[in-house]
Amino acid sequence: MSNLILRIFGGFGVGAVFTLVVLILTFNGSDEVEVTAITLNLLGSMLTGAYFSVAALIFSIEKWSMLKQTVIHYSLSLILMFPVFTLLTGWFPLNARALLIGFIVFTVTYILNWFGWHSYYKQLEKRMNQSIQTRR
To answer: Hey, how many other C-beta atoms are within 10 angstroms of the C-beta on 76?
Structure first.
């Protein structure tokens, strides 16, 4: 249970830092931004960070295949996070064209992220196996 709580608050932190970095990089000194907009974007980023931090635990279920883990993670991410992106934060307007573009961006980002992590862990596995072979 403590691992879950650490993941949630770690995700909140990552989301908050991400929002702060975006605010710093995009603020030009003459912008006026409503506190409500900042609050909703901060909350959206924090919820997104917490969700993905906890949802990564799906990939630690060893009895599931990689395909099952990925399909469940992607489906949950789409079902749970898309409302945060659209309804809470307004990152995507509620019209068919914007939602389709958002869906495509989400899916492409998910695929690229998945392949990036998959490649990283394959390289790590390869190095670990080589390390074991050289010790023998």
So the answer is: 13
Residues 6+ apart with CB under 8 A from 19: 38, 41, 42, 45, 46
The answer to whether 46 and 12 are in contact (CB under 8 A) is: yes
d(CA 59, CA 77): 13
Tens-digit pLDDT string for the chain (136 aa): 788 899 999 999 999 999 999 888 888 777 787 888 889 889 999 999 999 999 999 999 999 999 999 999 999 999 988 888 778 888 878 889 988 998 999 899 999 999 998 999 999 999 999 988 887 6
Q: For the chain, first and last CA: distance in Å? A: 39
- pTM given for the model: 0.76
CA distance 84 to 45: 9
